[in-house]
């Protein structure tokens, strides 16, 4: 299971406590539910989601006439899988022909550049040709940092100088991708998340430039979130994610945190799929999200 190692901290903070609770209390009663609630909130599942989950569990326990706490664990994992699955696809949308264009947005430090580098590596190892666009012309060092990843992975970076118009960089990148018949174009953006209208303005301009050249692009707009920030990641996604053209989420640094429960809160409170998760700093440490495997990694 690809998630197992990366989720070790979350497993300790969450599942091991649930297991301990089940062994200790044995029976499902009010105190049991209260303690379970505390554990889930402690793992950053989020108050609203915890309440819903506990209500769901109560109903199921009643329906199936369960008294033994040990019988609750499979029901809990069942509920979590259903919740994480939701009704939208975790798979990345790819162009049916021509170049697939994926834009990345996210505040500084969340792991945007790293994710682009890892994804470039993943596509390349699948035999696809990849091009990177240094669309974050705003943050000092962003272009160089992307170039470091470019040379590490062995893919070219389309860039202009710092401070230039990101839409112009995108134009160059889309032209180059078309000319060379590139399979995947991964675009960094400054994605200014200081406020929503900045983000929308910048993205709209980039959308226009890309669509003029490739009418069905961008195929994905991924918002990158740092899982170690727990509830903050959820607020960021709520504030900027919906209605700004974002099509999916990437949750990074799940390996470094006990707050993996945030994935559950995000899935429950937002109508945006988690597409990818970052499970380490290395090139290989990026996985497509899979709800069943994720839950199994927690409970295995
Ligand atoms: P950006 O400012 O959003 O482009 O963020 P960076 O890509 O520069 O990442 C910021 C820091 O987070 C770097 O030190 C990365 O190595 C680290 N990082 C990114 N993704 C992951 C991850 O999945 N796990 C861990 N442990 N660290 C990560």
From TrEMBL:
<keyword id="KW-0547">Nucleotide-binding</keyword>
<protein>
    <recommendedName>
        <fullName>Signal recognition particle receptor FtsY</fullName>
        <ecNumber>3.6.5.4</ecNumber>
    </recommendedName>
</protein>
<dbReference type="Pfam" id="PF02881">
    <property type="entry name" value="SRP54_N"/>
</dbReference>
<feature type="binding site">
    <location>
        <begin position="106"/>
        <end position="113"/>
    </location>
    <ligand>
        <name>GTP</name>
    </ligand>
</feature>
<dbReference type="InterPro" id="IPR003593">
    <property type="entry name" value="AAA+_ATPase"/>
</dbReference>
<dbReference type="InterPro" id="IPR013822">
    <property type="entry name" value="Signal_recog_particl_SRP54_hlx"/>
</dbReference>
<dbReference type="InterPro" id="IPR042101">
    <property type="entry name" value="SRP54_N_sf"/>
</dbReference>
<keyword id="KW-1003">Cell membrane</keyword>
<keyword id="KW-0472">Membrane</keyword>
<comment type="subunit">
    <text>Part of the signal recognition particle protein translocation system, which is composed of SRP and FtsY.</text>
</comment>
<comment type="function">
    <text>Involved in targeting and insertion of nascent membrane proteins into the cytoplasmic membrane. Acts as a receptor for the complex formed by the signal recognition particle (SRP) and the ribosome-nascent chain (RNC).</text>
</comment>
<dbReference type="Pfam" id="PF00448">
    <property type="entry name" value="SRP54"/>
</dbReference>
<dbReference type="InterPro" id="IPR036225">
    <property type="entry name" value="SRP/SRP_N"/>
</dbReference>
<dbReference type="InterPro" id="IPR027417">
    <property type="entry name" value="P-loop_NTPase"/>
</dbReference>
<feature type="binding site">
    <location>
        <begin position="252"/>
        <end position="255"/>
    </location>
    <ligand>
        <name>GTP</name>
    </ligand>
</feature>
<keyword id="KW-0378">Hydrolase</keyword>
<keyword id="KW-0675">Receptor</keyword>
<keyword id="KW-0963">Cytoplasm</keyword>
<dbReference type="InterPro" id="IPR004390">
    <property type="entry name" value="SR_rcpt_FtsY"/>
</dbReference>
<comment type="similarity">
    <text>Belongs to the GTP-binding SRP family. FtsY subfamily.</text>
</comment>
<feature type="domain" description="SRP54-type proteins GTP-binding">
    <location>
        <begin position="273"/>
        <end position="286"/>
    </location>
</feature>
<dbReference type="InterPro" id="IPR000897">
    <property type="entry name" value="SRP54_GTPase_dom"/>
</dbReference>
<feature type="binding site">
    <location>
        <begin position="188"/>
        <end position="192"/>
    </location>
    <ligand>
        <name>GTP</name>
    </ligand>
</feature>
<keyword id="KW-0342">GTP-binding</keyword>
């Amino acid at each position: 299971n690809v998630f197992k190692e990366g989720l070790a901290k979350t497993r300790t903070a969450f599942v091991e406590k649930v297991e301990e609770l089940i062994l200790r209390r044995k029976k499902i009663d009010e105190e049991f539910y209260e303690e379970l609630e505390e554990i889930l909130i402690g793992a950053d599942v989020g108050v609203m989601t915890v309440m819903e989950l506990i209500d769901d569990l109560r109903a199921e326990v009643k329906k199936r006439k369960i008294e033994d706490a040990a019988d609750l664990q499979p029901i809990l994992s069942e509920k979590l899988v259903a919740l994480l699955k939701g009704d939208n696809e975790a798979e990345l949308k790819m162009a049916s022909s021509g170049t697939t264009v994926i834009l990345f947005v996210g505040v500084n430090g969340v792991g945007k550049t790293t994710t682009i580098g890892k994804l470039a590596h993943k596509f390349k190892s699948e035999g696809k040709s990849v091009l990177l666009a240094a669309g974050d012309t705003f943050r000092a060092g962003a272009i160089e940092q992307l170039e470091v990843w470019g040379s590490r992975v062995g893919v070219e970076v389309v860039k202009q100088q710092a401070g230039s118009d990101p839409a112009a960089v995108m134009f160059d990148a889309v032209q180059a991708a078309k000319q060379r018949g590139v399979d995947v174009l991964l675009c960094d953006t400054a994605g200014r998340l200081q406020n929503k209208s900045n983000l929308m303005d910048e993205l709209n301009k980039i959308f226009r430039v890309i669509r003029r050249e490739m009418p069905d692009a961008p195929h994905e707009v991924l918002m990158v979130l740092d899982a170690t920030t727990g509830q903050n990641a959820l607020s960021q996604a709520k504030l900027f994610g919906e209605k700004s053209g974002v099509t999916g989420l990437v949750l990074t640094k799940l390996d470094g945190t006990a707050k993996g429960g945030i994935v559950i809160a995000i899935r429950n409170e937002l109508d945006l799929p988690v597409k990818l998760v970052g499970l380490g700093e290395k090139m290989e440490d990026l996985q497509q999200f899979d709800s069943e495997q994720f839950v199994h990694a927690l409970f295995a």
